[in-house]
Design a protein that fits this description.
It is a single chain. The chain is α+β, with helices and mostly antiparallel strands and about 375 residues long. It folds into 3 domains: about 140 residues, no CATH class; about 70 residues, no CATH class; about 140 residues, Calycin beta-barrel core domain (Lipocalin), CATH 2.40.128. It is about 40% helix and about 25% strand. The protein has a 10-stranded antiparallel beta barrel with strand order 3-4-5-6-7-8-9-10-11-12. Strands 1-2 form a two-stranded antiparallel sheet. A hairpin with a 4-residue loop joins strand 6 and strand 7. Helix 8 runs antiparallel to helix 9 and helix 9 runs antiparallel to helix 10. The longest helix is centred in the N-terminal third of the chain and has 27 residues. It is elongated, with a radius of gyration of 35 Å.
């Protein structure tokens, strides 16, 4: 944390406060300095006061220092002879805080990590409650291998409300860079225990991903994958896999009905159907397991306004889904069901029926036989 030093009062005005951080021993302005400089207006001829302002200009942030840093204290004091120049300095003091944070952000974005660390040390000295500045100080310090400083800054950022996951990830990065893989894996385990599931982020991060091949890391990653991609590891979502593929579809008579492409999407969380009719039409469906009911669901739409909404599950005869067929043009809805049956020769039979009497009896609506396209 920043420490305020140099506050012993003297007669007539109070000296300018200087903030120093233990990490960088970096002097920086404080809003209190504006008050001190304002008091100097009461004593424009006070050489001690002018000297203190000059000292600030020579040692503080670049907004003021870039103009005066190379000049001697005596030269700066000569500039501060009259009230008008002191007023100009006060304006610089008031505007310097926003400039400093903008400068720090620009250095951070440019990945000038040493300068960014120095700049953010100045920012948090001015505003110890700036949580983002503390986090960026930590990141910058980590890049220049000042790990103790980074960890101290992270602790403060966490106290000020920065998301615990952000803090944890940065701490794990530091553990990796320090060569403490055991602590790094334990840190990741803590994140996982608190609901972190972004395995792709971990593997894609150049620092975290460098642990690939480590036995403890790979064991944790394997467990995390089950949480990160649950559909891929749930056998229920594999029940309709026999329908996946690129197919030519024929009617029972042998006539070509069209072609269909069924693909697994989103790490196995649903099957996508893209149907192309031999007559030129087409349609698409999404097929997934509704885990609230543990039923398979198909939602179909086509260009002619046909909408199918059916659900069910695997039976001895295949995947049986029951529901409704709605026609947008006529605004009619009829009971509807479909059965997909894998055949011994590798084909799949798709049989659709509809009911015109509320489900009492059923009539054939479509029967097609799927043959895999030749590679």
């Amino acid at each position: 944390m920043a420490e305020r030093v140099g506050f012993e009062p003297t007669k007539g005005y109070k000296p300018l406060p200087v903030f120093k951080t233990g990490a960088f021993n970096h002097s920086a302005t404080s809003p209190c300095q504006v008050e001190r400089a304002a008091l100097c207006l009461q004593y424009p001829e006070d050489s001690t006061c002018s000297a203190r302002i000059a000292e600030f200009c020579l040692n503080a942030r670049p907004v003021c220092g870039s103009h005066l840093r190379e000049r001697s204290v005596e030269r700066v004091m000569s500039i501060l002879k009259n009230t008008r120049n002191i007023l100009i300095l006060i304006t610089l003091l008031i505007t310097s805080a926003s400039y400093a944070e903008d400068d720090a952000a620009a250095l951070f974005a440019a990945e000038k990590w040493g300068e960014a660390a120095d700049a953010y040390a100045s920012v948090v000295a001015d505003d110890p409650g700036d949580s983002t500045a503390w986090l960026r100080l930590a990141v910058s310090a980590r890049h220049i291998e000042r790990y103790d400083t980074a960890l101290q800054a992270l602790a403060t950022a966490e106290e000020l409300g920065i998301n615990a996951t952000q803090i944890g990830i940065e701490q794990v990065r530091i553990d990796v860079l320090k060569g403490d893989t055991v602590a790094a894996v334990e840190g990741l385990q803590g994140l996982v225990d608190n609901g972190f599931t972004a395995l792709a982020f971990i593997r894609g991060d150049p620092i975290l991903g460098s642990m690939a091949g480590n036995e403890a890391f790979e064991k944790l990653a394997a467990e995390l994958e089950k949480t990160a991609y649950p559909c891929e590891h749930d056998p229920k979502f594999r029940e309709f896999d026999f329908w996946i593929g690129e197919w030519d579809v024929h009617l029972a008579s042998g006539q070509v009905a069209g072609s269909n492409v069924i693909s697994r999407e989103q790490r196995g969380c649903y099957l996508s159907e893209h149907w192309t009719s031999a007559s030129g039409g087409g349609g698409d469906s999404i097929n997934y397991v509704d885990k609230m009911t543990d039923e398979w669901v198909q939602i179909w739409n086509d260009a002619s306004g046909g909408q199918i909404n059916i659900r069910g599950g695997l039976t001895d005869d295949g995947m049986l889904l029951v529901g409704t067929l709605h026609n947008v043009a006529s605004n009619t809805t009829t009971p509807f069901r479909g059965l997909w049956t894998p055949l011994p020769d590798g084909r799949v039979r798709q049989f659709f029926e509809q009911s015109n009497d509320g489900g009492e009896t059923w009539v054939s609506w479509f029967e097609g036989f799927y043959t895999r396209k030749a590679n």
